[in-house]
Amino acid sequence: MDAARLREALVERGAVLEGHFRLSSGRHSDRFVQKFRILEEPKLVAPVAQAIAARFAAERPTIVVSAAVGGIVLGYEVARALGLRAIFAEKEAGVPVLRRGFALGPEDRALVVEDVVTTGGSVREVLELVRAHGATCVGVGAIVARSRPDFGVRFEALLEMPIESFEAEACPLCARGAPIIDPGSRRA
Ligand SMILES: [Zn+2]
C-alpha cells in the first residue's frame, strides 16, 4: 500500500480529518488523526500491517512489541504477517511493563510498532522496556508519523504527516473565519 493510497483510505474512513481543530495543547491545526478509525477496520489494518512487516522482514525480527491500547491491534496483525508472537506493554503506576507472562529475552530481536507517532514518547518507553529485558530492537514501524523523532534505530512510517499547528492568535484558519472543531471525547 503506497502512501497516496493509504492517505486516501484514511481520509475516506474519517481517520484523517481535514478542517480546523483545537489540539489538546490548545494550538490550532488543519488536520487531526483519529487512529481508531483505522484500528477498528480489519480490512484496513491487515494491508497496513503487511506493509510494515514487509519493511522489516529482512531484519529477521523474532517478536513484535507494542504499547497498549492501540498498539495491541496493530502489533497483532504485524506479527501475523511475519509469523511471530505479539506482546504488549501496559502501564503499571505510570510505567510500562510486560504482564500476563509475556516473555522477552536477550535472544530476541524485537520489532516495535506504533499506530501514530506524534512526540514518540510511548515508543521510547517501549524501546527502554525492550532493552531492559536485554533484547535487541531491529526498528520501529508506524502507520503515520506526525514527526520524525530520533529513536536510535531504524524508523519507518507508511505515511508522513507532519503536524502543522498554530497559536490561536496566529492561526490562518481563524483569520479566514473558519469554524473550529474540538475533537474532545473523540480524541484517540
Ligand atoms: Zn484557528
TrEMBL record:
Matches recorded under SUPFAM superfamilies: PRTase-like
Pfam family membership, one: Pribosyltran
Phosphoribosyltransferase domain ranges (all copies): 38-147
Any single biological process term in GO: 'de novo' UMP biosynthetic process
InterPro entries to which the protein is assigned, alphabetical: OPRT (IPR023031), Orotate_PRibTrfase_bac (IPR006273), PRTase-like (IPR029057), PRTase_dom (IPR000836)
Pathway membership: Pyrimidine metabolism; UMP biosynthesis via de novo pathway; UMP from orotate: step 1/2
Single Gene Ontology MF annotation: orotate phosphoribosyltransferase activity
EC numbers: 2.4.2.10
Keyword Glycosyltransferase: yes
Keywords: Glycosyltransferase, Magnesium, Pyrimidine biosynthesis, Transferase
Protein name according to UniProt: orotate phosphoribosyltransferase
Organism (species): mine drainage metagenome
